Amino acid sequence: MSRANFSWILIIAGAVVEIFWVSGLKHADTPLLYGLTILGVIFSFSSMLIACKHIEVSVAYAVFVGLGAGGVVLSEMLFFNEPFLAIKVSLIAVLILAVIGLKFSSKENDDKATSKISKELGIDEIEADINEFIGVQK
């Protein structure tokens, strides 16, 4: 596994833990829950800091916060009786799509990932067929 891939795993894990500790800030009512909240904050930000050594900080932070924020809103609706509003769910969907777009637009992914995805999906062959059909030469 490459360092960049491991860094993305750390960002996602940190964002998932962020969902729990943010809810813990609001709902913790015992020393154990406060302690778990503090451990969550430490793990979450430590994973983010480690990941930023191998991924663009701006993209990593946007993904980290976006996934965490979306997860908090959904968990509050699912587990803590916050009102379910279609607009909230729609905005979270847009946020998650933007986060995915940022991940795929990061520097370390530009050439390698695009080439790999293009090859796996057969886009290279489709492009070659289109170019041949319309008479474009490489």
UniProtKB/TrEMBL annotation:
Membrane topology of this protein: Multi-pass membrane protein
Keyword Membrane: yes
Family statement: Belongs to the drug/metabolite transporter (DMT) superfamily. Small multidrug resistance (SMR) (TC 2.A.7.1) family.
Name assigned to this protein: SMR family transporter
Lineage of origin: Bacteria, Pseudomonadati, Campylobacterota, Epsilonproteobacteria, Campylobacterales
InterPro entries given in the database record: EmrE-like, Small_drug/metabolite_transptr, Small_multidrug_res
Cellular compartments annotated: Cell membrane
Keyword Metal-binding: no
Regions crossing the membrane: 7-25, 31-52, 59-79, 85-102
Family matches, as Pfam families: Multi_Drug_Res
Keywords of the record: Cell membrane, Membrane, Transmembrane, Transmembrane helix
